Amino acid sequence: MLVTLHRTRAALPAWVAPVVVGAGALAVAGTVGLMDPELRGHLSPGCPFRTVTGLDCPGCGGTRALYALTQGDLSLALQHNVLTVVALPLLALAWLGWLRFRLGRRPTPVALSPAAGYAIAATFVAFWVLRNLPWMPFAWLGSTAG
Predict the structure, then answer these.
(1) Global pTM?
(2) Residue 85 lies in a domain
(3) Residue 122: inside a domain, yes or no?
(4) In whole angstroms, what is the distance from residue 81 CA to residue 104 CA?
């Protein structure tokens, strides 16, 4: 005779997941804000793509840009990675929408259309290509600009 035991777990409140993700994001931003990534310690070991190719990936300079933002230096953040500076407020808005949905203040979640997904992917690829062009007006997009 096979006996199976089922444990019943109490479901967590719907707001827990967005709150945990938000707290994690704040913890990461706080850690970056306290540790200068220019020191190349354990916080920012460097980009493997850049190490191999000598070119910037779309994320190169993102940690330094976040550090500059935590220090209140928008200009320096833009020099390190303009895509990070633009994406952070959009991610914050997406997180806020998720939280509002989980709290029941929005009846349905907002979903991106396939066209919007393709546009985001195309933006990342275009940024990747343009930031590696050595002439103006694109040279300033590289993570070593400034």
Answers:
(1) 0.76
(2) yes
(3) yes
(4) 35
